[in-house]
Amino acid sequence: MTEVAAEPIAEKLAELNLALSPEIHYRLGTVFSRTDSMSLEQAIGQKYPLVKACEPVLLKALFEREQVLFVCLGELRFQKTIVVLTNLRMLLFSTDRKQVPWQPYWAIYYSQISELQPVFMEQYKILLKDGSKLKFNYFPLQDRQNFQPIYSEAAQRVEEEGLDPPVSQSRENLCSNCFATVPKETYECEACGATFWMPFDLAIRSFIWLPIGIFAMRRTRVAIREVLIYLFLLFFVVFWQAKGNTTFAIFTLVLTNASFGDWIYKQAKRGLLLKEIPLEKQAVN
User: Fold this and answer.
1) Angle value at C-alpha 174, between 168 and 176, nearest 5 degrees
2) What integer pLDDT is reported at residue 75 of this predicted model?
C-alpha cells in the first residue's frame, strides 16, 4: 500500500471537481491509497463513487470526531457489503442492487476482533471474540492488501487507549433510522423508538404471500419483480390444477412459499429490518 499525503489528494479531488462532505473527517491518504502501478487519479476514480455513496449513512452513523480510514466493497456470504474502517471500529453496510448502503447495518469494535485470516485468492475471514466469524467470499485483493495495515494500526491504537466498550455480541446491530446500537435479540431501538421485524413473523407473512417479505425490507422495485415472478408461478399452478394434477399444483405452491419464507427468515436473522419509525423521529429511511 502506498499512502499519499492528504494535500495532493485534496488538490486532485478539486481538480476533478469531486467533493466530499466537510462534515466527515477522512484520512485521505488511506481512503484513497494506491498501488505503485496506479496513478492518484486512478485511485480516486476507483474509490470515490463508493465513498460518496456512503456519505448519507456515515453522516448519521459516525460518532463525533470519528475518522474514516478505509472504505471497500466485498461480498459477505454472497451479499454485497461495504466495509468501513474508522479510528474506533469497523462498520458494515448491506447494499441494494446499485451498491448503495441499505439496511441492515452493523458495527464491530476492534477489541471484539480476534484474528484476520486471508483464505484463498480474494476470500477473507474475520474471527470475532464471541466465536462468530465473517466469511467474505469476495474481498478485492488490492483492498485486502490495504485493509490489513490500516486495521492493524487502528486496532493497536485503540488497544493502547484501552477502548473496550461492553457489547451484547461482537457484531452489534445498528438501528437503520438513528444508527444507535440495538442489543442482541432486541427488536426496538431505545434511542428513537423504531421497531424491527421479528424473523419468524416476517417468514410467516412471506409464506402466506411471497412478496410481503421483500416489501417489508423496503425494496419496492425488487418486490414488484417478485410479484411478477409469483404471478407467473401462479399461472402454472392454475394450469396444473386445470389439468387435474391438483396435488402437484399445491405441492409446488407450498414448496415455493416455504423456500422463500426460509430465505426471508435468514435475512431477518442476520440483521435488523425496519418495521416502523415514529413520525417525529424519522431520520433515514
Assistant:
1) 155
2) 92
- Helix, strand, or coil here: 171? coil
- Cβ–Cβ under 8 Å, residues 70 and 30: yes
Interatomic CA distance for residues 161 and 210, integer angstroms: 50
With a cut of 50, which residues of the chain have pLDDT below it? Answer: 284-285
- pTM, whole model, 2 decimals? 0.87
3-state secondary structure of 89: strand
Cell of residue 63, nine digits: 460518532
Q: What residue has cell string 495532493?
A: 8
- pLDDT for 58-110, tens place per residue? 999 999 999 999 999 999 988 899 999 999 999 999 998 788 998 999 999 99
Topology of 6-174 in CATH? PH-domain like (2.30.29)
Residue-by-residue DSSP string for 114-132: EEEEE-STT-EEEEETTS-
Of 102, 77, 108, 105, which Cα lies nearest the Cα of 266? 77
Residue 90: beta bridge partners?
85, 108
Cite the DSSP H helix spans in the chain: 6-15, 28-31, 40-61, 141-161, 199-208, 212-216, 220-242, 246-270
Cell of 118: 486471508
Residue spans of the domains in the chain: they are: 6-174, 195-281
